[in-house]
Amino acid sequence: MLNIILFGPPGAGKGTQAIKLSEKYGLVHISTGDLLRAEVKAETELGKAAKSLMDKGILVSDEIVTGMIDSKISKSLSGKGFIFDGFPRTLPQAESLDNILSKYSLAITITLALEVEEEELYKRISLRGKISGRVDDQDRNTFLKRMQVYNAETSPLKSFYKNKGILVLLNGAGSIEDIFNSLSREIDKKL
Ligand code: B4P
User: Fold this and answer.
1) How much distance in Å is there from the Cα of 15 to the middle of ligand 1?
2) How far is CA 78 from CA 73, 81, 119, in A?
3) Element (H or E) spanning 132, and its range?
């Protein structure tokens, strides 16, 4: 199985590229952001708890997110693999992911980290905010909070995957197609 983590700050293009890569390589795309937004839309208890945190740019609890991931993985074990988009975002989530995968005798093949300057990230997110209606995309302070959370809790995961020898850093600035091609080149080396 080919199991990929697509990593990067808010607005780096994880969701955009994960959709294209999952189509090209036949992988199951698991986006914790999308799963949480679906819970919010359906007004479930989980969604109600998640909404206020997401709107403020704060992470939802590790326990909730990890439970959702385990359930999704267990339903697609006969496929070609997974692409994780926006997960893991904390060290406990990364450790849980390893534990869940090893339960099924699986492991992460590669972690692809998209690197983009903060001003470019803000430009993309505020543009999306005008069309998507996402509350967390519409306010500069919420963006700054998301960046602060990313720098404090998520970015340190790069060392976690570097130590495992499976981290690849890639420039996430440029056209969607050029970035897709450079991600594909890295994945092809693993096939
Ligand atoms: P996410 O849904 O993961 O949101 P994101 O980081 O903003 O998205 P992404 O990087 O995928 O950006 P995209 O491709 O769409 O998280 C939202 C919230 O959910 C979090 O703040 C948190 O509260 C919660 N959450 C999610 N996962 C969690 C977890 N594991 N644990 C706890 N809480 C969690 O790109 C952004 C925009 O840029 C798009 O409009 C796109 O069209 C554009 N774009 C993409 N690539 C471009 C390019 N190359 N050039 C120009 N524009 C580009």
Assistant:
1) 6
2) 10, 8, 41
3) helix 118-132
* pTM reported for the whole predicted model: 0.94
Nearest-CA neighbor of 135 among 41, 68, 15? 41
Residue 141's SS3 state is helix
Residue 10's region, left for phi above 0, alpha for psi from -120 to 50, else beta, is beta
CB 99 within 8 A of CB 176: no
Is-catalytic flag, 128? yes
Is residue 157 within 6 Å of ligand 1 at its C-beta? no
Average pLDDT for 164-177 = 98
Number of H helices, E strands in the chain: 9, 5
69 lines ligand 1 (CB under 6 A): no
Domain hosting 181: range is: 2-190
Q: What is the CATH number of the domain that holds 113?
A: 3.40.50.300
Rounded distance, CA 158 to CA 30, Å?
Answer: 20
The pLDDT tens digits for 59-108 are 999 999 999 999 999 999 999 999 999 999 999 999 999 999 999 999 99
Count: domains in the chain: 1
- pLDDT reported for residue 133: 85
Nearest to 60 by CA among 45, 75, 42, 72: 45
Convert the pLDDT of each residue in 122-159 to its tens digit.
Answer: 999 999 999 988 889 999 999 999 999 999 999 999 99
